[in-house]
Amino acid sequence: MRGGRIRWLRHAIPNAVSRAACLALCAATNLWAATTNSWLQRLEEDWTTEARLRSEAELVSQPVTTRDDAAGGCDGVKNGGWGFHTGHSPEPWWQVDLGATQALSRVVVWNRCEAAERAARLRVRLSDDGRSWRTVYQHGGTVFYGFTDRKPLEVRLTNATARFVRVQLPGTEFLHLDEVEVFGPVATLMPYDSESQAYELIRRGEGSLVASVYSEDPAFIARAAAELADSHGRVHAVSPDVAASQTGHGNVMPMSLHGGPGRAGGGEELGGLRALGFYHRRTAVQASSAALDALAATAVPYKP
Known about the structure:
Strand order of the largest sheet: 1-8-3-6-4-5
Helix content: 25-40%
Shape: elongated
CATH class of the largest domain: Mainly Beta
Number of strands: 11
Radius of gyration: 37 Å
Structural class: alpha+beta
Number of domains: 3
């Protein structure tokens, strides 16, 4: 239709008028296209907004259970806000069920940074059955935070076991925390198929101050000491003949420098022969006489 009008105008009207009419018609056509695109874009935005508002309305209309709210206290998100929030109620609490009685070493509490003073009298309570509770810690009243200063409240426990761990406030108050973390003793049990695989797994730790070996076989202890010496500052070997007198894994021996060739490292003052020793890997082996004799038998004599 528009094409027909353009052809007719070009024949019936002088060239100048024809060009002007054509330009006006093209401009109107372009304006109509631009207006149409803008209108479609606005319509699409309206549909999107309506769908979002409908979705939010449906979420708001669904009641939030205490279980859903409590899950925010152990969701791994630490941002200084509140992971869960109770009402203003007498002795409000939050708790986690570990599924079975577990050994516990510490409880770390990340506070909500706004209104943090409300948790100043926080208690940590433990239970084996969810009915009988024992208080193992009560905070002294100082305000703690967590996310903003990287200093959450850390409650260390000794010989503690429980299935349920609860944090609770005395009196009538709001309880709102960012995150609650419950830790057991640091221990990892890793199966292995052979002695060589065991050494391989240990080396994945990239070294440490001390490694402990328990065995009644002096030959095995000697092999283990030689294998672990390059990544540990001390090899602590315990056999039945020294079990009663051994010093323990974490004791630093007075004749040893506190450090090793592994990640813990040890900055030594260098000079003379000690400077040469810096370029060699050294370790201390603490074991029974029989194990040391077995290890010495494998040593390569020094030749100056």
